[in-house]
Amino acid sequence: MSNQDDINDAQQDAAEESGPDNFFIDILTGNKESISDKKLLVQKTLRLLIESYGFDRNDLEVNYHPRIEGHMRKRVDIAIFRPGTEHTNENLQRIIVCKHQSSRNKLRSFEEADADLQGLRELLELLPAATLGMWTNGQEEFLLQVEHTRFETRAKPLGVWPVPGENTSDLDRTGGVIQVSAEAEDLEDALLRCRQYLNRNLGLDHKDSFKQLAVLMLAKIFDETLPTGERKFWIRGDEPFTEAGQQAIAQRISESIVAAKAWQPSLLTRGWDLTLEPHETARVVMELARYNLSETQPRYRTGAFRAVVRNVMDGREGRYPTPLNVSEMAVEMLDPQPGERIMDCSSGTGTFLAMAATHIFKKKLAAMGTTPEEATNEQIRQAQNETAAWAASDALGCDIDPFLAVASRMNLLFTTGNPGRVFRIDARTFPDGDLDGIEAARPAMSLGSMDMVLLNPWFSTKDVVVDESILSRYDLGKVWNKEQGGDDYVNSGAINTGGVPPEVLFIERALDWVKPGTGRVGILLPDGVLGNPSDEYIRWWILRHCEVLASVDLPVEPFKVTVREYGLTPALPSLLVLRRRSQEELINTEHPEYKVFMAVVDRAGVDARGNLLFQRAPDGEELVFDEEVVERVREGGEVEIRRTTRRDRRIHDELPLVAEKYKEFRDTGEVINEN
Fold first, then answer.
1. 263 and 121 in one domain?
2. What local confidence, expressed as pLDDT, does residue 462 receive?
């Protein structure tokens, strides 16, 4: 890195540092620091090193200035030293160069990035104790290993770094090296790099790129079920960069895919095959091989999966992924228990089912007396196995779209290690129908057999269901007339030929699927259903057939972020939580009065553009909090759990508080006002 680079970075920082809220909290020092793109990139990389690789923060230093005789002042953006040693040139092990750049359309090869890597190579040559280097711009990541001989310093590319306590020779052993991914952002970035490579470099569309990635993810997940010596989803240090190495990787992966498909024969359908060339396969495998998914928390895997799958839904008929924090709130409110059968009858990409699995995972850890943050790797693996067993028997879903049915199964597999049971059927006509999943679905998910249904049905201001063969199956597909001089409504028996919005039919369908008397439904609906005068009969029908447990008005901003890429405007959303009445309750129409939990959410973590919202003081200043966090410090195969205090801003998201207050309400019948 040249002196001019230092000058340029300083000028950039000075230009970007402005405004009272233009700050971040340094992960190493806990101090407030003014924002610049370069500094934020350094912080992101530090999180990768601490939270994914497991480096001890005491062995890291930002802006290390090594004294090198005969050379002008140099700077190392992030220096990694031998554990527990003084921060000197002699103890320097790894060098990281962070270079903020404008985003690139395509990912570069090492040869294409040669000019950018020159500064890193120069530092590695001048500091012989350091044998490993990383160059990153936040989008691309290049790893180097150097060998110092008597006459020269040679640098070669690496596909993966060794974790703390291991060295480069460990990278060449059979089975490679696998590190724990303890943070969602790192895994998400890796999957997004895969998608970008498939989309931009290879020219595949979103669905075709997802198919390629799904096949490889299946192979990866299956591979982790095998003993280390039998695994095939790994790479040697520089294997992805030689023709022979690429061929070897492709051969291993091909064998793994065959075995994985035999392991889960119903997961993928015809046309879901790997069609990449060996060098293309090697490029994607290089991104995925480093992770041990079985030791990575399901919540992180779900978030990462959603980042790469969200573009496969095209927004037709109002179908788009549910915001992750909204799904999490709904799941927390309905509180699924191990042993309960949970279903999404409009599963899309499987977000609700995956978040339900994450909830079950936490309960499994709680039964062991621990939490996701404090659990050992062994406890995480055990809870993961138990969650996979739950998914195999009790996680069910369906979707009319064959692609999305596969995507839902993949989401559950990626989150839990098991794809659950998601069928391609038309939920509106079940148990009838002729789609390819109907025969298997009938015995697996009969009406009235579910403990819980969670769903975000597609809803649209334009499209209504007009098919009389569908409308005739539903009370809410008929015309309802209000009794003269009364408040009740009467079913005329005539089909509503004007059409019915699909979300209205899904209210009735979801209730059909849960157990009478105890079954719960959590459904996202447009506010109009709950407020329009013309929809009063729907609300009357709901009150007649259900006990309303909760109604939560949601902010539109998270949904705007979700649908903006489709050019859509979302309806104002609400979450309705219902309990299906028993047959006895339906006969006895005189129901006692009961309390309903109601909440209005103003902030859900993001604005309409997707920018994070942070908690502020009454005067508008962003607040900083001391938080106790758990860090996993890795030394070879051993992981030490350490508690530390970290200062940071808090995202202003009221959804977790709503879930907490709802639980309080269900336990006590009251909500305690803490103000």
1. no
2. 64
